[in-house]
Write a structure and sequence with these properties.
Blueprint (H helix, E strand, L loop, with lengths): L11 H10 L1 H18 L1 H5 L9 E5 L5 E5 L6 E5 L10 E5 L1 H8 L5 H6 L4 E4 L1 H14 L3 H4 L7 H19 L2
Parallel strand pairs: 1-4
Antiparallel strand pairs: 1-2, 2-3, 4-5
């Protein structure tokens, strides 16, 4: 007679599947916010030059999904993909903790410091990542911009991210 364990492993595979299958709303929201920023600040996308047609994979290390961004201004798009899917279509990729990546995207984080402290990894066409970094700095995005929300939501989002960041740091401590 075999008795099944009462404890189950972490539901990461189940959550990964759920997040992947429910990806369409996230893709719509993120693509809409990218295009909204492009309409408000086309000069930031002009700074990308030929990189605007590249595909950049963003791999949050602590999420069971990755994102593929084509920053082509008002024609740009963001897709949610499985992190283990073929990254061959991407010109470049950047990986790291979600909160670090978000801080880099909204300008709160120091990209050079994160890279040299090995908080983030960059693969592929580093010129594409550098062009994206320069465009993001020039656009002065807020977290609300990234999520496609009115800028008035940014203080609440920053507070929420700060709380999550402190909570995550507590998880890491022994």
């Amino acid at each position: 007679m075999r008795i099944a364990s009462l404890r189950r492993g972490p539901p990461t595979r189940r959550w990964a599947n759920l997040m992947y299958w429910a990806r369409r709303p996230a893709e719509i929201l993120l693509t809409a916010s990218l295009r909204s920023v492009a309409r408000r600040q086309p000069e930031a996308f002009d700074r990308l030059g030929p990189v605007r047609h590249a595909t950049i994979r963003i791999n949050p290390a602590d999420l069971p999904v990755a994102f593929e961004m084509r920053p082509d201004g008002v024609a740009g798009s963001i897709r949610v993909v499985r992190p283990d899917s073929n990254a061959g279509a991407a010109s470049a990729s950047i990986s790291g903790p979600l909160l670090t990546l978000l801080a880099l995207f909204d300008g709160r984080g120091d990209a050079d410091g994160a890279f040299f402290q090995r908080c983030i990894d960059i693969d592929g066409d580093t010129a594409a990542i550098l062009a994206l970094h320069n465009a993001l700095e020039a656009s002065e995005l807020t977290m609300a911009d990234i999520l496609g929300l009115p800028r008035g939501f940014d203080p609440a989002l920053q507070t929420a991210l700060s709380v999550v960041g402190r909570w995550r740091q507590g998880e890491v401590r022994p």
